[in-house]
Amino acid sequence: MKRFKTETLFVPLKVDGEFGVTSVKDKDGKSKNFKTRKAVEKFCMENKCIYIEQKFIFYR
Fold first, then answer.
1. What gap in Å lies between CA 19 and CA 36, rounded to an integer?
2. Which of 7, 9, 48, 51 could link 56 by a cystine bridge, Cβ 3.0 to 4.6 Å?
3. Facing residues of 11 across strands?
4. What are phi and psi of 18, to 5 degrees?
5. CB 58 within 8 A of CB 5
6. What percentage of residues in the chain have a pLDDT greater than 70?
7. CA-CA distance, 48 to 55, in Å (whole number)?
8. What DSSP state is assigned to residue 24?
9. What is the Rg, in whole angstroms, of the alpha carbon atoms belonging to the chain?
10. Residues 6+ apart with CB under 8 A from 48
11. What pLDDT is stored for residue 38 in this prediction?
């Protein structure tokens, strides 16, 4: 039995001219998250953005 569970999210970010960083918003106003690196890389290539990887570890 595992003692912990991990969850990884990839979040795209936009950088403006003054190096301000904001997350890319979805249509409903929430920040856009991806489950796979391949999907976020494709999105960022099309929209000229960068991304970060967030890893969550849940201990039982």
1. 26
2. 7
3. 52
4. -100, 20
5. yes
6. 98
7. 23
8. P
9. 14
10. none
11. 95
Nearest to 6, CA basis, from 52, 56, 48, 47: 56
Model confidence pLDDT, tens digit, residues 6-26: 999 999 999 888 888 888 888
* Tokens 């856009």 found at: 32
Give the DSSP H or E segment for 13.
strand 4-15
Which phi and psi (to 5°) does residue 41 adopt?
A: -65, -40
Whether the CB-CB separation of 11 and 52 falls below 8 Å is answered with: yes
| Identity of the residue numbered 41 | E
Specify the pTM.
0.77
One-letter amino acid for residue 60 of the chain = R
